[in-house]
Amino acid sequence: MKHKILPLLAVSFISLPLVSCSDSEINSSDVPEISQSIFVVPENFQGEPYSSQYTSSDKFYVKLNEKIRICGVYSINGTYVSAETSMNYYSSHKWTIDNSEASATSVYCTFDKVGVHNVTFETIDHLGDTLYSKAEIYVSTPPTITLQSPANNYNLVDGENKNGLELSWSISGIDPWESSRCIVYASYDRKTVWDSPLGELDCEGSVNLLGKLDADNNEFGDPINHSVNNTTIYWSVQADIKNETGYAEHAFSEVFSFSTKLKDNDSAIVEIPVSCNSSQYPEKSILTGAFISATGDTLSKISKIKNNAIVYQTLAHQSNIKFIVCDNVRKEFGCATTVFNLAPSTRTRLDTLFLQDKTKPNMVPAKTELPTVSKIQFYILDNGAGVNVSKIQAFMNNDSLVTSFDDYILTFTNTCKKECNLIITAEDYAHNKAPDVYWKVKVIGSETKITGPFARLEEDQ
Fold it and tell me: Taking the model in full, what pTM does it have?
């Protein structure tokens, strides 16, 4: 903290006779001592910086693109004073931040380059003297951790692990003024991996996982048959990065997994979760599928699969196996395929294979001729994800209608008096919108006729 003593006003020297000091004598203790400090607070901080958890310093540590406010704060006789009070003690002040200047008590900044940024705060007090304060702002590189080995979902690990298994990763974003330590986590249960630390070590290293990897029992306590079931282990890394103040920033990797090989089994087992995406009627879907070799031969067929099920199949190890699955009931979901490879003695679980509904809902009037006093009804049909009732709207000559929708039938009162344009908008749960059309309603006495659909022109929308 830089400071100075405000001097007394200079006067011309004259000779006076010596007299004793009176009560009005000015002592050096009566001269106010002014000093200034630099604070860094968040951009949206409210109040005086010195009345918070923030402290003045000549070194500050911020993140890349973090929005901050750099504040100049004054003290009188060692006591911080408010920005309003301090105005009585200076005539001007100036910030210099990386060769850019600004005149204000506070400066809002966002640094988009990592490294050390220089800050100077210069004040001219009301007597013309100058105060200088300097600080450095250290802008940190965002840290990232990338898991490297074993590759995610690798499934050829020896369950006995007699030679150990190396877990390795890389870390970036550790700046010269920072230090780091890493914690490695591993668990048989993905949900508990971050609660299962193995130990702490230097972030630039790796760890050799020792001991048997195959679990003896499953989560229910039953013995595991390792000829048909493997063991999956989930692992991750946390980095704790500290700067010179001791402040710690934490970085977390993704969660990777690896699995052990099957014992005494040269075949391969594949698991494929299947699901009809966005379906509101999963119980109505019945799926069928087939595994097809790279040469086009059918390896296996499956039938009567329920939606949101997992398909299990044992196959000979080979490459470029195609699996195709179709919905035979909710046909708008169509079919989905995936291609994969199987190594010997492995059990492989693939990502969920989603069947997608890409078909628009269709609509048609229940009757095209009806008594004028009757309500108008339209069928809105969707044999896929299902009609989203909250997205249905009906307009008669741009006037919104009150509707009800039940068992695929949309019902509303006939408000047309003579000739009207009827617009119905609808959407299914897969976000497919019904065709952009309108219908013509014509009232002839006691009878009403509905014709259409007609394409809506852009100027009509």
Answer: 0.71
